[in-house]
Amino acid sequence: MAGKMMNNRYMQLSWAMMKTGIIGYGGGPSVIPLIRYEAVTHYKWMEDEEFGEILALANALPGPIATKIAAYLGYREKGTFGAIVSVLAHIIPSGIAMILLLTTVQFLSSAAFIQGMIGAVTPVIAVMLGMMAYEFGERAVKGLGKYVGFGFFAIAFALLQGVHIHPAIVILLFLCYGAFHLRTVAALQRRKQQKQQRSVQKKEGVTRGMD
C-alpha cells in the first residue's frame, strides 16, 4: 500500500518538496542541491540540462528561488494543481514550524546547539553546491567549447564579484548571448554543409564530364 502511494506523482511531489523545505537550512542556496537530487537523481523527472535551465530562469525572476522551482516541477508533472501541491508541500512544514517556535525563535537563534547544527551542516551544503557547480560547468564547456566556456566563467565572475551587477541582469545578458550564439553556430554549420554539398556536386559533375 505504501509503495503504491509513493508511486503516485502527487505523493512524490509532496514528499520531495516537504523534505527539501524541512531539511534546507539557510535558504535558497542550500535548498537547490536538495531539489536537484529529488528531481534529477531520485525521481528522474528531468535531465540535468533542463534543471540547469530552470535554475537560470528562476534566478532571473523575482521571489524565492526554491518556491519558483517547486512550482515549476509541480506544474511540469501534474499541471496547475500539481504546482499548488508542490508549493504548499514545500512551504507549509517550515511555516508551521516557524509559527510554533515564534515565541522562542530569538532564543533559539543564539542557542549554542542551533549554531552547532548550522555550522555542522554548512560543509555538506558547500560540497553539494560545489558538485552541482562542477557538473554545470562541465556541460557549459562541452556545449560552448573550452575557450568560450572558460571565457564566460571569467566574464561572469568579473561582472558578479568585480562590478557587482545584479545576478538577474547577468543571467539575462548571458541568455541573450546564448540564443545569438546558437543561431550563429547553426548558421555556420548550414553554410559549411552547403559548401560541402556544392563541392561534392562539383566533383560529381567533373567525373560525369570525363565519362
From TrEMBL:
First-listed, main subcellular location of the protein, grouped into a coarse class: membrane
GO molecular function: chromate transmembrane transporter activity
GO (cellular component) term, any one: plasma membrane
Name of this protein: Chromate transporter
Annotated family: Belongs to the chromate ion transporter (CHR) (TC 2.A.51) family.
Originating organism: Paenibacillus endophyticus
InterPro entries, A to Z: CHR_Transporter, Chromate_transpt
UniProt key word Transmembrane helix: yes
Membrane topology field: Multi-pass membrane protein
Key words, A-Z: Cell membrane, Membrane, Transmembrane, Transmembrane helix
Membrane-traversing stretches: 81-105, 111-132, 144-163, 169-188
Keyword GTP-binding belongs to the record: no
Locations listed in the record: Cell membrane
